[in-house]
Amino acid sequence: MLMKAAIVASLLLIASCATPPRSPNVQREWVDYYQVETTKPYDEVLAELEIAIGEHNFRITGHSRVGKVIRGRGAEGFPEYDTVQFCNLTLARSILEITPHAIRYMPCNVVTYQFEGKTIVRTHLLPEQGDNAELNRFAADMNRQLKQIVDFAAEN
What we know:
About 45% of the residues lie in helices and about 25% in strands. By secondary structure, the protein is of the alpha+beta class. The protein has a single domain (about 30-155), classed as TT1751-like domain (TATA-Binding Protein, 2-Layer Sandwich), CATH 3.30.310. β4 and β5 (about 120-125) form a beta hairpin. α2 packs antiparallel against α5.
């Protein structure tokens, strides 16, 4: 009886690891990130991030102060965690005219957080190696700007 239970449990475990069949309507992509670390004070990084976003003609559409809110709920000493979302409607229109599926890349997002005495600044990049040459060119330009924004925020 114990042997049968072990076999059934093993089969269930193996089945749970199987890759589900892919739907023809689902496109899987590898998400690439750009990240830098700095010892610059956290508040300065956030201030520089806001400046860099504006310098690139983007507007901040959201700012989640996750670490601050958690500390406000009684978790003293909880580290800083922030997400900043931003967009440029002219660029948004351009990419959506290339393909409506590009909505999944919007808005642009940069996360900042503290880890081991450093501030991490990270953003996800748009894929540049797809089947659509116009989208690839757009992504390359956008990725250049995203990297510049991150670098400016983290620069000492």
